[in-house]
Design a protein that fits this description.
heterotetramer; A mainly alpha (about 230); B mainly alpha (about 240); C alpha/beta (about 230); D mainly alpha (about 40); B: about 240 residues; mainly alpha; Four Helix Bundle (Hemerythrin (Met), subunit A); 7 helices; C: about 230 residues; alpha/beta; Rossmann fold; 6-stranded mixed sheet; about 35% helix
Chain lengths: ~230, ~240, ~230, ~40
């Protein structure tokens, strides 16, 4: 119980710091919108064939803006050795991981909540599938790569070139989740009649989420050790 | 010599010279590679539909299997390192990862040649190729962590953590890409191992073993070099300390 | 309070603490002296549970370091070089965040009290970002004692402080000493060490090379005693 | 047949190239150790 309470304290601290500094979230948002705009230049939004790109585009926007936030997640703790302040407090290391994860997760969900409707709007996409399914898919997929992403960002923050290192670590490891989630989104958006197939993909991503979230919790102690 | 007190403390047994055992290990490895060459080119039957090109398959599977084996060694040594914090496991993981990358590079190069001759395309998003590519990227990332600044024990810890995560990811990647490939690329791919004849199986098994032996010899040699480098670092540290006094 | 036997800490190839033994009784105020790179800060970090010892036995508050870290952490305050503070937060927010992690009761009251005690009542809600080194250090001191620790570890606390901040720091140590707090202070400031501490230990090359009570509370006496042992090393 | 020979020779070239690389690495380290030993005898 205290693990969760401390995690929420840490997540709250992160979100509060973000509210005060207004550095990461606006950057992520602007970046997400820019990616959408660039895409509308690259692929003609009026063409019917471009509609097929929307499912992939949702995740490209999400992942690339998520990387920006994940990068700052642990780097921001290095300035005054803040992370050491958390380590020497009577707090389980799992709380630190969970706290960081919650904060990142919330920020990325906010970005998605704004960027995805905007994407539909700018590409004039009429969504007539099942909204709960879409939300569930987005939630499951984001959970997976933000979880492992928060963990790998802690590894990368030890490097001098962490901004460059993190995508290299994250993309290969997150591949199964990405494959699954893009496929599921594709089915929900393009073939609403085959929804049971999307369910299969969601199970795969759900399994991935559970396995890797568990591993992250078990191994996080070794990353924090000084 | 006062410089060499730290060897036992490290748990490393240092000898940098080539010994008889090394010659024997290498000799057997080379001999097995030669025999496997004979098996591949002369002994084994030529496959009916694909012709001689099918024989790429032996080296391809041989290296792919051993790349996996090497990464398996990384995985096991990573767990052992985190559990015991003995440097020797980190040395093994370092060496095995490097050799694994070499093997996977071979796989990535021979794969397209096989694809070109079998399916007339250089690349296909076929599950085995896809997961080999991801595997390649995972261990490139692993090497990037190795090249980080900092003391060896910090790097060893981070690498061990990533080595564990990366290896667990492999079967999931394979499963995901197989499912993905089967749904979106229906029948580009023929079953390559469909009807292997007896002597083909023998050639394949022998080649895999030959490469495994080769892998063992390489790891052995790599570890000896790594140990020598650690000894060198120790000497330098001690000398620096003496000068510092 | 603290009982350390054969403590070894290796960082990479470097052996920083080599079989260090140390015993500290309840309520003592100890100056940890020694040349640069001798392992003073490392010793403090091991006691603060930031570094894991490579080998050896460490007992703090009667609890083994391998047994229950969080029990030790609850009762230990640590003030390192870095402030550990979040720049965008005000002193109050910083204290409340760390106070929550330590499970401090009546947190708001306690935080405000501490901020007044370190003389920053006027800046209670200003972000720490614009503060001077002296002001930051004052908040950092408050952070270190937010949970009323029984053991306070200070790493060069007097460096870069103005006269007033030094006064406040010494005050904090003195008042808490009367409440029974044990203090370990790594320092190069012999004047402060001589006035504040009852006992000094000298660390050289990773072991305690000397351990004596401070009998005469003057800078010269302590400096002489130190030079006798350490000699030309700085 | 050319495909087969290309694939096989690429494999062997990389493997033996790697052995060569290991060998040169080893010689370098051993040389350095020897020279340090000489210097600080």
């Amino acid at each position: 119980m205290s693990i969760l309470r401390n995690a929420l304290t840490i997540a709250g601290k992160d979100l509060r710091a973000e509210r005060k500094s207004k550095q990461v979230l606006p950057t992520m948002l602007v970046f997400a919108v820019l990616v959408i705009v660039v895409f509308s230049f690259a692929f003609d939004p009026d063409k019917e064939s471009t509609k097929a790109l929307i499912p992939g585009l949702i995740w490209i926007v999400s992942i690339f803006s998520a990387i920006l936030g994940l990068n700052r997640s642990f780097i921001s703790e290095l300035k005054n050795d803040n992370i050491q302040g958390m380590i020497i407090a009577p707090v389980n290391s799992i709380s630190i991981f969970l706290g960081k994860f919650f904060a990142n997760f919330v920020m990325i969900l906010i970005v998605q909540a704004i960027a995805i409707p905007m994407l539909f709007l700018l590409f004039d996409y009429q969504f007539n599938g099942s909204l709960p399914w879409l939300l569930l898919t987005i939630f499951t997929g984001t959970f997976g790569f933000v979880g492992i992403g928060s963990f790998l960002s802690a590894i990368a923050s030890n490097s001098g070139i962490s901004e460059m290192l993190l995508p290299l670590l994250l993309f290969p490891i997150a591949t199964p989740a990405l494959i699954g989630i893009v496929s599921a989104t594709k089915i929900i958006l393009r073939h609403p009649d085959q929804i049971e197939k999307a369910y299969g993909w969601l199970q795969l991503v759900g399994g991935y989420d559970i396995i890797f979230f568990g591993i992250c919790i078990v191994l996080f102690d070794y990353i924090l050790e000084v | 010599m006062s410089f060499f007190k730290n060897e036992e403390e490290l748990g490393l047994n240092l000898n940098t010279r080539t010994t008889l055992v090394n010659h024997i290990v290498y000799g057997i490895a080379f001999a097995m590679i030669l025999v496997s060459a004979y098996l591949i080119f002369i002994y084994s039957n030529i496959e009916k539909t694909m012709g001689a090109v099918q024989k790429i398959f032996y080296v391809h599977v041989g290296t792919a299997w051993n790349a996996l084996l090497a990464f398996g060694v990384v995985f096991v040594c990573s767990i052992l390192y985190l559990a015991t914090k003995k440097r020797i496991y980190d040395v093994y993981a370092t060496v095995a990862a490097e050799i694994g990358v070499v093997f996977i590079i071979i796989v990535m190069l021979t794969g397209p040649i096989w694809a070109r001759s079998a399916w007339n395309v250089w690349w296909s998003w076929e599950p085995k190729l896809t997961s080999a590519l991801i595997l390649f990227f995972i261990y490139i990332a692993y090497t990037m962590i190795r090249f980080m600044d900092g003391s060896w024990d910090k790097k060893a810890r981070l690498c061990a953590v990533f080595g564990i995560i990366g290896f667990i990811d492999v079967p999931i990647v394979y499963f995901a890409s197989e499912w993905w490939g089967s749904k979106f690329h229906p029948t580009v791919v023929g079953q390559e191992g469909g009807g292997l004849e007896g002597n083909m199986v023998f050639a394949l098994v022998f080649t895999v073993f030959a490469f495994s032996f080769f892998l063992t010899a390489l790891i052995h040699k790599g570890v000896r070099i790594e140990k020598a480098r650690i000894e060198l670092q120790h000497m330098k540290d001690k000398i620096a300390e003496k000068i510092g006094r | 309070m603290i009982k350390i036997q054969k403590l070894v800490k290796k960082m990479g190839n470097k052996m920083i603490l080599r079989n260090l033994d140390l015993e500290v009784k309840n309520g003592e105020t100890i100056a940890v002296l020694g040349p640069n790179g001798a392992g003073k800060s490392t010793l403090l970090k091991v006691i603060a549970t930031l570094y894991k010892p490579t080998s050896g036995k460490v007992m703090i508050h009667g609890i083994d370091l391998n047994e229950n870290l969080n029990k030790i952490r609850e009762k230990t305050g640590y003030l390192p070089h870095a402030s550990l503070l979040y720049e965008h937060f005000s002193p109050l927010e910083n204290l409340e965040f760390f106070g929550k992690l330590y499970g401090v009761k009546d947190l708001e009251k306690r935080s405000k009290e501490l901020i007044k005690q370190v003389g920053l009542a006027f800046f209670m809600n200003e972000p720490v970002k614009g503060f001077s080194r002296g002001m930051i250090q004052r908040v950092a001191i408050a952070r270190a004692i937010i949970h009323n620790p029984l053991l306070l570890l200070l790493d060069e606390p007097h460096t870069g402080l103005d006269q007033k901040a030094v006064g406040i720091l010494n005050d904090v140590v003195e008042t808490n000493k009367q409440k029974g707090m044990t203090t370990l202070m790594v320092t190069h400031d012999f004047k402060q060490a001589a006035t504040l501490c009852d006992r000094a230990i000298i660390i050289q090359r990773g072991i305690v090379s000397d351990d004596f009570p401070i009998e005469v509370r003057t800078e010269e006496w302590l400096l002489n005693k130190y030079n006798e042992k350490v000699g030309g090393e700085n | 047949m050319t495909f087969l020979y290309t694939a096989y020779s690429i494999t062997m070239a990389i493997l033996f190239g790697y052995i060569f690389y290991l060998g040169s690495k080893q010689t370098k380290v051993i040389k350095e150790i020897e020279s340090l030993k000489e210097l600080y005898k």
